[in-house]
């Protein structure tokens, strides 16, 4: 009986687990999709959501006289002459920021303007969503884009001789999505969708399905439409009636056909469960797609199929039709199509107490074909956001074939309030293709924005097609709360700094973009208080992709930040293609000052936590408090107090820099700084580090008191020749011509006098000790004995010792080493040179005041190293003027920082300026001019010229801003050039240099040669 009971219990457990899995699968199948951001480019100079809403709210008619655009030139709307043809046209179609996307001018000229438009609008949508590119890359982002027209490709068919490598990918529909995935390195599904007029909403439907099925975690979905060739309009009017009146008069009695229009819209989508903490513009509760089936004609609509489509979408959304209070209709504006559509809408949505408004964005723009559906969806999203229904432009008298009597439906001709019910308002969007492919979507406003609740189980599961009694998912439809992130700079513990930190990182692909970008931020910050300014800074750090040309502005208050933004006049050189390697340099005694660290500990919780832990160790080992001495500063003249408090601050600063994403590839330390360097390298733990510092300080105090030190601007060999006493010696080799002598006071004075007679500069150091001098003979052995118990661990970060001037080897940091560290000369310059030889180019000095930057710079300049060196704190200076500016220097040097750790998480509702595109004209037949190369010049000179040509073309292909990013002697294999770039490089060399480049020879050089090798091969062939 017991066995049977166990079997029964096991079976019940398995049943419950199976039910749970099925329930979870069902929840996933219907999970709402959050709209995180959107980008638009529409007629009427609409370039963002704000201008889109203004146009809708004000009932603007953006249709203008149509113009042919065979050459890419378009007069401004006000300058277009009435010619009996009308269209909703974009102002410009020939401009494109090709350099931003790393596309050469030759390739850009062959790219369909629809591809160019999608690239820019998709980037704007990412920025609106606050998602840096790295986030999309990690998420396996999918791309789903509607496209229909091929005007640009057909323009090239008349000149077969102009067709080249870029023609096919420049015009293929598939590449519209694939190029976006390729250029942004997105690994999810990537597809172009062509269902004619429903293409973009169908793309959204497919994106929703892919997200729910886990094929991607983020999706870019939308569509684009550009009209260039009048032939395509002729083709269109043979299928769809063009309105003789020149307007789309949806729902109106005088509706007489469509008007063609252009536009582009891209949404950034993710599953609701992944949107927590982010601003959500709207939630897509459900979508559906179907076909009209066999009707009385391929292009004829089917009201039964339309009604079925609406019900399917509602079932997918698990909401009732009477909860929808706005419907963005397909709204063709034809006498037959409008009544058929409204008939289906009334059948499904007509009953209920909550009024429901009908609208169509086609009354503003015309029929945007492949972009129509996403434009309507974005309009519906804005309706929910603003809780207003824009007017249907041109609606004067309802089509008599449309009967809304007795229904809850209306078609407003003026701006009206959105009907609000018990729950967060909902909208529905329709889009129908002229071939019969239809799509429908259900949207909902984020409930947190309106304070209304989300429909629950009791009122969502009565929709036809949804089984009764199945409870709705807990929290179903509840999007991420607006403003759910931590306020900017308000992190606690080790999470971030304090409120009010004003550090603003700005970046661009083109340095010319930095000035307009800075001015746009200045406009955004005008009148902002400290909290709002800090929030903008945090958003700029965490919600923007950090590009090659960079600025980083720091300020004490918003007024200073605003002034700095208005002073920006340009950007510097581009950062290297790979982040530079960093070394931490820990300074020694002499950098301390009263009040050091007071503001730092108050502002940076990371440092405060580290110093507090150090304080506990020192209290136990020495019986005094680091925190008390930092606050008081009265004993900083004592060696023990000075060195231990400096060490504690250095440990805190190291933790802070690391928390900000600055990880050292090497560490070194000057004198006592070598102890904290060993801690940072992982060789000593905290207790061991302070044990060494305390014992070392006591031995130094005992042996070196009463001495003196001086810095002499001569090489060490020249200084040795001046030393005539065993009571003085070389205490430090800080630079090529910076040598410190140390010892008994009179002996040091004698060496200084001799140096001054030679004309050398001499600086007496403010020290009452003769550190690293003969005065410490014997103390080194005593210190080694004191530390006989020390058992250092292997270094986890390479450490370069200033005792030896070289890399620390296994077992080197034992007791004897610290005895030498006390007595021997500090070989700082050799250690820095050894670090630089490994490729480290960025040096961060950690200490209360930068005392080594000058010597470090002279050492690196002597070695011919292009470097960046910064300090951390500075005597009697606020942290914002020192640490923050150093952070900005590292950002400009190319380091990838953890901006959320620096500034805290930005509030979810902080709007930022869009990227200022640096567009240039790119059009058919306007390829870059041929570069003449005189082949009669000597081979060496010809090779040099060609090498520069090759490097520039490779830099252009890879999106580099500076040809120096393609060194002449670097193996070309390092750049991983794809086949298309290689073929185009061959073509460019042949067409622009007038030479023949055998492909096999080119491939051989690319596999193992450099730009110089390639140039030599081309020069030889020429």
Automatic annotation (TrEMBL):
Write the protein's name.
Uncharacterized protein
CDD domains xrefs: PKS
Q: Where is the composition biased (Polar residues)?
A: 450-465
Q: Does the keyword Transferase apply?
A: yes
Domain of life per record: Bacteria
Supply the source organism's classification: Bacteria, Bacillati, Actinomycetota, Actinomycetes, Streptosporangiales
User: What Pfam family is a match, any one?
Assistant: Ketoacyl-synt_C
Is the keyword Transferase assigned to this protein? yes
Q: Which UniProt keywords apply?
A: Phosphopantetheine, Phosphoprotein, Transferase
């Amino acid at each position: 009986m017991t066995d049977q009971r166990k079997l029964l219990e096991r079976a019940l457990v398995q049943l419950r687990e199976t039910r749970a899995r099925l329930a979870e699968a069902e929840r996933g199948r219907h999970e709402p999709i959050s709209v995180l951001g959107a980008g638009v480019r529409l007629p009427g100079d609409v370039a963002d959501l704000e201008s889109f809403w203004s146009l809708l709210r004000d009932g603007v008619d953006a249709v203008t006289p149509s113009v042919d655009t065979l050459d890419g030139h378009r007069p401004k709307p006000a300058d277009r002459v009435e010619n009996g043809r009308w269209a909703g046209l974009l102002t410009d179609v020939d401009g494109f920021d090709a350099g931003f996307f790393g596309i050469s001018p030759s390739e850009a000229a062959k790219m369909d303007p629809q591809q160019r438009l999608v690239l820019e609008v998709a980037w704007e949508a990412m920025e609106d969503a606050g998602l840096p590119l790295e986030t999309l890359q990690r998420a396996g982002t999918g791309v789903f884009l509607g496209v229909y027209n091929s005007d640009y490709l057909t323009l090239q068919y008349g000149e077969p001789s102009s067709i080249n490598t870029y023609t096919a990918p420049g015009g293929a529909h598939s590449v519209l999505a694939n190029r976006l995935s390729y250029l942004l390195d997105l690994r999810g599904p990537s597809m172009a969708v062509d269902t004619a007029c429903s293409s973009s909403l169908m793309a959204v439907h497919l994106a929703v399905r892919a997200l729910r099925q886990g094929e991607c975690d983020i999706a870019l979905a939308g569509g684009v439409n550009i009209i260039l060739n009048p032939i395509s309009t002729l083709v269109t009017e043979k299928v769809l009636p063009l309105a003789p009146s020149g307007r789309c008069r949806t729902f109106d009695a005088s509706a007489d056909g469509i008007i063609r229009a252009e536009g582009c819209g891209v949404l950034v989508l993710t599953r609701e469960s992944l949107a927590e903490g982010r601003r959500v513009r709207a939630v897509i509760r459900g979508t559906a797609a179907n076909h009209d089936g066999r009707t009385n004609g391929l292009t004829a609509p089917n009201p039964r199929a339309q009604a079925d489509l609406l019900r399917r979408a509602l079932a997918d959304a698990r909401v009732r039709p009477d909860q929808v209070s706005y419907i963005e209709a397909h709204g063709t504006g034809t006498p037959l199509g409008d009544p058929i559509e409204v008939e289906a809408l009334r059948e499904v949505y007509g009953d209920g107490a909550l009024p429901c408004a009908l609208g169509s964005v086609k009354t503003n723009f015309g029929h945007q074909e492949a972009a129509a559906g996403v434009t309507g969806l974005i309009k519906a999203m804005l309706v929910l956001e603003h809780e207003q229904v824009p007017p249907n432009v041109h609606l004067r008298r309802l089509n008599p074939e449309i009967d809304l009597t007795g229904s809850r439906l209306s078609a407003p001709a003026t701006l009206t309030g959105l009907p609000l019910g018990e729950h967060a308002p909902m909208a529905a969007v329709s889009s129908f293709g002229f071939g019969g492919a239809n799509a429908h979507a259900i949207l909902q406003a984020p409930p947190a924005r309106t304070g209304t609740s989300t429909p629950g189980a009791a009122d969502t599961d009565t929709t036809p097609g949804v089984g009764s009694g199945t409870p709705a998912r807990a929290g179903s439809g509840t999007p991420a709360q607006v403003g759910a992130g931590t306020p900017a700079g308000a992190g606690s513990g080790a999470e971030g700094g304090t409120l009010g930190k004003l550090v603003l990182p700005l970046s661009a692909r083109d340095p010319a973009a930095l000035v307009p970008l800075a001015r746009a931020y200045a406009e955004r910050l005008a009148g902002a208080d400290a909290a709002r300014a800090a929030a903008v800074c945090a958003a700029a750090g965490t919600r923007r992709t950090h590009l090659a040309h960079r600025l980083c502005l720091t300020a004490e208050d918003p007024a200073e930040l605003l002034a700095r933004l208005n002073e920006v006049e340009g950007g510097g050189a581009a950062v290297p293609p790979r982040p530079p390697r960093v070394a931490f340099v820990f300074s020694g005694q002499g950098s301390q000052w009263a009040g050091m660290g007071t503001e730092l500990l108050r502002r940076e919780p990371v440092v405060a936590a580290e110093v507090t832990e150090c304080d506990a160790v020192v209290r136990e080992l020495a019986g005094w408090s680091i925190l008390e001495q930092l606050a008081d500063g009265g004993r900083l003249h004592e060696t023990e107090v000075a060195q231990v408090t400096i060490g504690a601050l250095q440990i805190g600063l190291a933790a802070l820099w690391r928390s900000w994403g600055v990880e050292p590839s090497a560490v070194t330390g000057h004198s006592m700084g070598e102890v904290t360097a060993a801690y940072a390298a992982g060789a000593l733990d905290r207790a061991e580090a302070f044990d060494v510092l305390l014992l070392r300080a006591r031995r130094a105090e005992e042996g070196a008191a009463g001495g003196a030190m001086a810095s002499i601007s001569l090489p060490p060999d020249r200084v040795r020749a001046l030393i005539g006493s065993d009571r003085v010696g070389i205490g430090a080799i800080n630079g090529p011509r910076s040598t410190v002598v140390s010892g008994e006071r009179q002996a040091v004075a004698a060496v200084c006098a001799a140096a001054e007679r030679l004309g050398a500069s001499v600086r007496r150091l403010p020290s009452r000790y003769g550190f690293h001098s003969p005065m410490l003979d014997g103390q080194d052995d005593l210190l080694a004995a004191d530390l006989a118990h020390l058992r250092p661990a292997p270094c986890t970060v390479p450490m370069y010792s200033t005792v030896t001037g070289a890399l620390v080897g296994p077992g080197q940091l034992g007791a004897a080493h610290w005895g030498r560290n006390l007595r021997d000369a500090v070989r700082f310059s050799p250690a820095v040179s050894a670090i630089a030889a490994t490729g480290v180019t960025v040096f961060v000095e950690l200490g209360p005041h930068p005392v080594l930057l000058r010597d470090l710079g002279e050492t690196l300049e002597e070695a011919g190293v292009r470097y960046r060196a910064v300090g951390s704190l500075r005597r009697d200076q606020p942290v914002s003027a020192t640490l923050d500016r150093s952070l900005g220097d590292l950002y400009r040097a190319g380091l990838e920082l953890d901006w959320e750790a620096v500034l805290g998480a930005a509030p979810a509702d902080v709007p930022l300026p869009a990227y200022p595109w640096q567009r240039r004209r790119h059009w058919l037949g306007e390829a870059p001019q041929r570069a003449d190369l005189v082949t009669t010049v000597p081979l060496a000179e010809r090779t040099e010229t060609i090498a520069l040509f090759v490097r520039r073309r490779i830099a252009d292909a890879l999106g580099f801003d500076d040809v120096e990013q393609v060194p002449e002697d670097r193996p070309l294999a390092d750049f991983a050039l794809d086949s298309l770039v290689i073929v185009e490089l061959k073509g460019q060399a042949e067409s622009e240099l007038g030479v023949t480049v055998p492909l096999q020879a080119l491939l051989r050089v690319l596999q193992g040669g450099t730009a110089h090798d390639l140039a030599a091969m081309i020069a030889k062939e020429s």
